[in-house]
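User: What would this chain look like folded?
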Amino acid sequence: MIVKIFTFKNGMEEIEEVTAIRIKSKDYNLLILKDYLSVVGEIEGFFEVETKEDKFTYKDVKAYYLFNNNNFDVLIEGV
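Assistant: Here's the prediction, encoded as structure tokens.
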């Protein structure tokens, strides 16, 4: 899977070979794996991107995401 993280401060960051995406928002918890169904949503909380070698955690964010065809695009508000 490929994750693209968009922020106003840093522009676009791309993470490849992602194995899992964990989202914990105020209303739900979600684990996204390869070939998961398409989903659109809002995050008020944190999300974590896990690769074979590393984890990237984004805490206390407000963000909007789209997962489609094993691509996860997220726009983080206010950063």
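The chain has no helices and seven strands. If you want, I can go into more detail on any region.
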